[in-house]
Amino acid sequence: MQRVAQPPVALVSAAGRAMSAPTVRLQIERIAAGGAGVGRGPDARVLFVQRTAPGDLVEAELTEQKQRWGRARLLRVVEAGPQRRAAPCPHYERCGGCTLEHLQYQAQLDAKRALAADALARIGGLTLPAAFPITGSPQEFRYRNRASFRLRRLGRTVVAGFHELARPAHVLDIDERCLLPEQPLATVWGELRRSWGPGAALLPAGGSLRLTLRTTLDGQATLLIQGGHSRGDPEAVLRRVPALAAIWLSPSSGQAPVLAAGADEVAETWGEDTIKLSGGSFLQVNRAAAALLEAHVLTLAGDVAGRTVVDAYCGVGLYARRLARARARVVGLELDPAAVQQAHLANAGDAVFRAGLVEDLLPAALPADLVILNPPRTGLHEAVIATLRQEPPARIIYVSCDPATLARDLGRLAGRFVLRSLHCFDLFPQTAHVETVAELACSTT
């Protein structure tokens, strides 16, 4: 029998009135988006219970009730399902950074594939390939080359880590024993925590800071500090943490990072490419799994020699660079001007890069034989959908980090395009996030 200790949560009715919290017993059937287990209470209402696994028989305390569904807090596992395991991370019981660590890794992959299939069929109304694959991460733990921590000053106490699972407004103190970061990143995080001084006095002043650490393949680290209302003493931090190569500051939301100390660029090796990282540079956090996903996209692209390709939401232009080296004519579209500048500097083939909103730039970049889409979690702007339907490329490769918005967008493209293949990739083990690559063909070709 497993007991789970969590802070009490008040039960709130649909009308907003405080209620006593009844206890229910239920069998967990599957994992929902967000990582909660799903079962049915005694009244057949669907209940979502975090930290449960398919096959578990659990007792849980109701914390929220709606007409057709509710949430409950796990009290104990009466009988463990076959997919449950003891979570290895010492912070897992309370930490909200991971949601699936209590599942065997293959069970995590099965759950993520099911989540993608459910969203695509239910939201997009799509007929799916019978058994599309999911590729796991080469490293189940210690895979993140970038992690963001929240630092809170509570009087004289400093707490820095991730938000709590049961109390998202609270920050749980997380040290280098966290199993998500690559070991070099975890080491730097521990050194930084021991080096920022009493009350984190060497960091910018303020009640709440966001600290984003990144480490390169050769172990160099950069730190981006967001929030605060002073400069702190970044030079002293650099002296105390030898692996830190640069510190960047961004005092307010939306403000471009400014170099505070160290090198203005740090070289990162990414496959065959060298990326010059600055404060706001974006790369996938799981380098080994990202390499598998990127290889799949390039395989789908096929022989592009002499073809016209649009790489939309291209970032620093990794796909564009590689396809240009394969003798394609490539147009890269990206909102971030710093990323576009870097893509220009690193360009080694017949590629051009344009900065701006994809919905504004895409019409002029067409016609094309292939369009690669790699949008943020919000998916495609309606104008992008309209442009692709009006002047369709022969093929689209859509790389998505959210099955729900992917399903919505593929539903909007249906009729003009047909789904040829799907492949999921697990870039975020221990969480409910999943990347999906969809290949579409114009229905008129």
Model description:
This protein is α/β, with parallel strands linked by helices and 445 residues long. It has three domains: 2-84, OB fold (Dihydrolipoamide Acetyltransferase, E2P) (Beta Barrel), CATH 2.40.50; 109-138 and 285-442, Rossmann fold, CATH 3.40.50.150; 146-277, Beta Barrel (OB fold (Dihydrolipoamide Acetyltransferase, E2P)). The chain has nine helices and 25 strands. The strands form five sheets. The chain has an eight-stranded mixed beta sheet with strand order 9-24-25-23-22-19-20-21, with helices on both faces. A hairpin with a 5-residue loop joins strand 5 (37-40) and strand 6. The longest helix is centred in the first third of the chain and has 18 residues, at 105-122. The protein is globular and about 65 Å long. Mean pLDDT is 92; it is low at 1-14.
Annotate the secondary structure layout.
Blueprint: E1 2-3, E2 11-12, E3 18-19, E4 23-31, E5 37-40, E6 46-49, E7 57-65, E8 69-79, H1 105-122, E9 134-135, E10 146-154, E11 157-163, E12 171-173, H2 183-195, E13 208-215, E14 221-226, H3 234-240, E15 244-250, E16 258-262, E17 266-270, E18 273-277, H4 287-301, E19 308-312, H5 318-325, E20 329-334, H6 337-346, E21 351-355, H7 358-365, E22 370-373, H8 382-390, E23 395-400, H9 403-413, E24 417-425, E25 435-442
Parallel strand pairs: 6-8, 9-24, 14-15, 19-20, 19-22, 20-21, 22-23
Antiparallel strand pairs: 1-8, 2-3, 4-5, 4-7, 5-6, 7-8, 10-11, 10-13, 11-12, 13-14, 15-16, 17-18, 23-25, 24-25
